[in-house]
Amino acid sequence: MNPKSDATLSLSKVTILVRVREGILDPQGQAVLQALHDMGENDLFSVRIGKLIEIYIPSSDTLESRLESWCRDLLSNPLVESYEIQSIKPVSHQPMSV
Amino acid sequence: MNPKSDATLSLSKVTILVRVREGILDPQGQAVLQALHDMGENDLFSVRIGKLIEIYIPSSDTLESRLESWCRDLLSNPLVESYEIQSIKPVSHQPMSV
Questions:
Q1: How far is the alpha carbon of A37 from chain B, nearest alpha carbon, in Å?
Q2: What percent of chain B has pLDDT over 70?
Q3: How far is A70 from chain B (nearest CA, A)?
Q4: Do B66 and A17 touch (CB under 8 A)?
Q5: Cβ B46–A26 below 8 Å, yes or no?
Q6: Fewest Cβ atoms closer than 10 Å to its Cβ: which of A19, A86, B21, B72?
């Protein structure tokens, strides 16, 4: 099945943010903080680096619960990360494939 | 200097999103797409994974131009990534240190 051939298909763009939990060491953020410090930028309090996940998927009534389950089971490690489904927006065009 | 001792300090929380450019292969996104496919989720069009960067820093008039320069020089690789300074918001509390 090629879903692109279905002209009536309604598509959603989902944006998910995954953050390292407070109190958990974030080595990537620490490295950026140190690099900025080495560039003479001394006034930063903190830098934390997480993941931005963008998904294009057909809209459906069950989408939000499916997303929750993916976030819990695959997209984040609940021990050290928290996730936020920031937005689910209808879109009219599909992203370019790679 | 301990900036935390300055009670008059106005702090900003900056959120920066870094995305792999369209047309550039995103192996991390491909891996997640494949994992979801293996779980029986066959209707996804695309999954792209980028970086969420959150910075706490004192507010200032020059903050935005400093951020632009950090994004260009350190936080993204302009050849294959694009960045977006999504928000600069005043905050009243400092994040927990790690």
A1: 12
A2: 87
A3: 8
A4: no
A5: no
A6: B72
- Given a cut of 70, the residues of chain A with pLDDT beneath it are 1-8, 95-98
Q: pLDDT tens across A68-79, in order?
A: 999 999 999 999
What's the domain range around B29? 10-91
In a domain, A86, yes or no: yes
CATH number for B84 = 3.30.1280.10
Between strands B81-91 and B11-20, the pairing is antiparallel
CA distance B79 to chain A (A): 16
A59 in a structural domain? yes
Whether B58 is covered by a domain: the verdict is yes
Number of domains composing chain B: 1
What is the value of ipTM here, to two decimals?
0.87
Residues of A in contact with B32 (CB under 8 A): 53, 74-75
DSSP B45: -
Which residues, other chains included, contact B14 with Cβ-Cβ below 8 Å and sequence gap of 6+?
B53, B54, B55, B56, B57, B63, B67, B85, B87, B88, B89
Contact B46 A95 (CB under 8 A): yes
Contact B57 A36 (CB under 8 A): no
Domain for residue B1, yes or no?
Answer: no
Look at residues A27, A30, A60, A57 and name the one whose alpha carbon lies nearest to residue A46: A30
